[in-house]
Amino acid sequence: MDIIFNPPVNSENQYIRLIVDELKAKGYRIHALDNFFSSFGHFKSIRLVHLNWFENIDDSNFFTALKSFFRKMVVLIAIRLSGKPLVWTMHNRTSHEKGKAFFSRILVYFLLRWTRRIVIHTHQSEHMLANINSKRARKTVYIPHPNFIGVYGDIISPVTPVVPQLHLLFTGMVKPYKNLEMLIEVVQQFHDEVQLVIAGRATDPVYQKQVAKQAASAGNVKLLPYFIPDEKLAGLITKADVLVLPYDLESSLNSGTAILAFSLKKTVICPEIGTITDLGMLQDRVFHYRYGNAAEHRGALTNQIAGALLLKQENPLKLQEMGTRLYDHVEKVHDRHSIGMQLDHIYRALIRKEVMKTT
Prior knowledge:
Blueprint: E1 2-6, H1 14-25, E2 29-31, H2 40-45, E3 49-52, H3 62-82, E4 86-90, H4 101-114, E5 117-120, H5 123-132, H6 134-137, E6 140-142, E7 166-171, H7 180-188, E8 194-199, H8 205-218, E9 221-224, H9 230-238, E10 242-244, H10 256-263, E11 267-271, H11 274-277, E12 287-289, H12 294-314, H13 318-333, H14 336-358
Helix pairs in contact: 1-14, 3-4, 7-8, 7-12, 10-13
């Protein structure tokens, strides 16, 4: 069965490969959106379209954003007119790219109207959509974010910690919505008691230089300004006590990095985005917090880092125990095979319904 799952590959995000592998195992032939109109025969063969991050716009400048927006609108209209079932995974509350956000909002408006199913990875997403439009919320299907167990190799057993310092790690794309400037300022206050590694590259070289300059002046922050190869990632995470993810609550819902941390038996410091609130009773195994503005965010982040530091000083093994419990959770709840089966069920139901309409 031929479907579009877009993007079909992403060298810097294993999420895509994990989903695509499961779909291929179910017999689906995966195609890229760019080839949708390559020929009439190919266009006709596509039974369903599933889009990820389609609402994101290249906002490097206005004309680039405008071109990207119109191209995507043409594709959406073509999918709509073709009658092919459209599935959209809602990854974020709003687009992280703030520069040309109105283009993104228009795309989201039509995605919400025209999609047959909205795949969500957190229950927060459903509540948010219900507050906007109850009709749209009825389209949602909750499917957990796949875990990353075994993806980056075997878990490296950490050496029993003997140093009193708290070792923090941020890994992922370096972008403004991740509040790294604030994180560096907060960590700097702890001096030698806390060490922070920021591992990741920025798409904006100006912003990369800004973060690098701030990190260099902090004294207890190390910047690795490049994409971490898959074979190095597990080792880097193992060296950390806690991953710190000070995301923007206005745009963030899910965190693949948090799921990655849990998959490698690490806990996190993170605001109460959907990935965290979905932990339920296990929220006490992470350092979670809320905030209403930048000042509150800085204070809450400071308190959570201080709490993690105190916990390590009182019981060096406690942080490892928290990570192990989170690993057990994602191993069961975020099982990739189960996720593939759920997507398969959604696809087949939509395609079967479309066939019945045309016969």
